[in-house]
From TrEMBL, chain A:
GO MF: ATP binding; ATP hydrolysis activity; transmembrane transporter activity
The ABC transporter domain, residue ranges: 22-253
Record bears the keyword Zinc: no
Cross-referenced Pfam families: ABC_tran, TOBE_2
Keywords: ATP-binding, Nucleotide-binding, Transport
SMART domains the record matches: AAA (SM00382)
Species annotation: Tropicimonas isoalkanivorans
PANTHER family (UniProt xref): SPERMIDINE/PUTRESCINE IMPORT ATP-BINDING PROTEIN POTA, SPERMIDINE_PUTRESCINE IMPORT ATP-BINDING PROTEIN POTA
SUPFAM superfamilies linked to this entry: MOP-like, P-loop containing nucleoside triphosphate hydrolases
Protein's name in the database: Putative spermidine/putrescine transport system ATP-binding protein
From TrEMBL, chain B:
TM ranges: 40-61, 96-121, 133-157, 177-204, 225-250, 285-311
Gene Ontology biological process: transmembrane transport
Protein name per its UniProtKB record: Putative spermidine/putrescine transport system permease protein
Protein family per UniProt: Belongs to the binding-protein-dependent transport system permease family. CysTW subfamily.
SUPFAM superfamilies (UniProt xref): MetI-like (SSF161098)
Bilayer topology term: Multi-pass membrane protein
Cell location: Cell membrane
Principal location listed in the UniProt entry: membrane
Source species: Tropicimonas isoalkanivorans
Keyword flag Ion transport: no
Amino acid sequence: MNQSPSAGTMQAMRGEPPKVAVRVRDVTMDFGGGALAVDRASFDLETGRFLTILGPSGSGKTTLLRMIAGFQKPTSGAITINGRAVDATPPHRRSVGMVFQRLALFPHMTAAENVAFPLKMRRFNPKTIPGRVREFLDLVKLGDYGDRRINELSGGQQQRVAIARALVFEPELLLLDEPLAALDRKLREEMQLEFRRIQHELGVTTINVTHDQREALVVSDDIIVMDGGKIQQHAQPVDLYRRPDNPFVAGFLGVSTFVDGEATSDGLRAGGLTLRGTHATDISEGAPARGAIRAEQIRIDADPQALAGCDTAVPGKIHDVIFEGERLLYVAALDGLPGVEFRIYHHDPDAFDLYDIGAPVMIGWNARDMKIFKSVA
Amino acid sequence: MSQENDTKTFRYPLRWRIMDALEAALDVLWPRRLSPYSGWALIMPALLLVGILVLGLFQIAESSLHVLDRSTFMPAEEYTLANYEMVADSATYWRVLWRSLLGAGLTVFFTLLLALPYSYIMVRTPSAAVRKALLVALFLPFFIGQVVRAYGILIVLGTSGAVNDVLGLFGVEPVRLLFNFPAVVFGLVQYMLPFAVLMLAPALTAIPRETETAASSLGANWVRTFWHVVIPMAKPGLVGAGLVVGTLSLTDFAMPAMLGGGSQDFIANAIYDQFFRTADQGLGAALALLLVALGSILVGIVIAVFGAGTLGMGGKK
Ligand SMILES: Nc1ncnc2c1ncn2[C@@H]1O[C@H](COP(=O)(O)OP(=O)(O)OP(=O)(O)O)[C@@H](O)[C@H]1O
Ligand SMILES: [Mg+2]
């Protein structure tokens, strides 16, 4: 379990303890199906920050979120929200707003009635309700749509109603369970920025769940990567991308190529080649190791001179060239390692279509970009 | 790949073969160029049935316009509204009418009140055993039939029945529980409950569980969730079930006859008496038409208020 590096360092910098909004301690969920849905998850989330839980399908993200919302009781472990243990608090007494994967708006009410619902349920002063509903519909740019029924709104507009409904009663915590998954890519990216804007405007502590790594990197202050019910890493986006703790995280964010071999003091030996790299974990020489390198950190050139600045430069062959619009993806293998297909991004707009399939090229990278991990048995 | 191998990986299903044969036969019986009329051909049987009903209705309307000739005990020749006047002037028939309406209304109310939680639990319970038990309990009475069930109620609620036995243990004198209005409504509710549950269950299934979860996260306890979310979203089912229960109760014969003991007649019992006891066809026909009119008006009002869409017929009001 990895603690966020941010918590400690920021605390020291500001010289005051940051307020912890959500504290999750050793929370485990066992549905009785063999593997644990959530396995001893622990993390702290500071007030006002935007945390994203990122992981593949079935990794336990929704389960963790539902336990925080109170819809499910953890098998063991403790959850505190703003210093109060909430284990015995039912969802309707927690101050948690949630936007659901399928939105779960009330189809028999208008947009405005949906937004007013939590205010009525939480016994706000009836005189203040209309003004507040208007304010939050404006916040999500739906000021003119209050009278519409839910089925008279577009997907993106329904999304906005769901956000307004979850925020209007000023919850201590906002939970988002992949509410953007169903939208097309353009709308999704627009809504991601929208989430960020609203979250900054209101400063509400937020936990977002997604399996979209781009979304996680774009919107979050902190990211937790989950796999198989376990927290794999908890870090800020840049740290997470640059310094993955294990091959899973390295592979889940970005496009990486993995090379299995044995560790050397300054890299990895595989297929008779010595590839330069840096140790990402404590690992002794000669131990089985796995190297990971991202597609944008590999250079490719026909001219060996061009790669003179690289710590490693090895001859290889192009296996495939894939046009991705803003960039080209080369699939290439080193001559001594025909089984490992390196994936390499090429961005130079003048040098598109430089190499054909089968062309001999030099492939190189810098030692700091190839991360060497201990092999997991 | 050999043909043998092909059949191993994919066997042409028997059901498809039957469909093929049926389609081939249909092509002969109903050539393709007739296909624009297929829709009409398909609803023809239903139209025929409705047509027969309408014909019968005309027949009844016709006979309601003749009074019984007491000398021959045959309907008189001349046309007259005397039968309708007779009904309108009769306090007894007004009482029967009012009793039927009140009985149907109360039955709808109590049936829905009981059916809603029953079907909600049946739909939402996480336990398959509970669901099955509730379903079986629902279908068992169907196999028993109305008359036997009414007889069962007679036995249980009778002066020397199980209920009075239990009351006797507490020193209560035997109470007359039968042959009164509440007994009839009790019997009707008991009879209608399965229909209502069966009509409500699909409506409740259609409500996503997440919608209720959302309501609770927005601050609603389960009572308020039920009131503000489940009931409004189940409205089509409630209206449909209410209509079916209401019309079936309004026109019911067996429960008032058996549990009312002759003192609690509904309209259907009055009609029966005219047709089969007094043999006054004209008066019976007039009452029958009144019943049809009453039922149609009530259904019309409900549909006008709630919209045909609430019955799952699509479209808005
Ligand atoms: N109510 C339940 N009963 C039994 N098992 C469950 C239940 N809910 C979830 N699980 C199991 O727990 C594991 C984690 O599920 P969860 O829904 O948390 O995944 P997720 O990360 O949200 O996935 P996705 O991205 O597909 O939504 C899965 O293996 C799932 O099958
Ligand atoms: Mg999920």
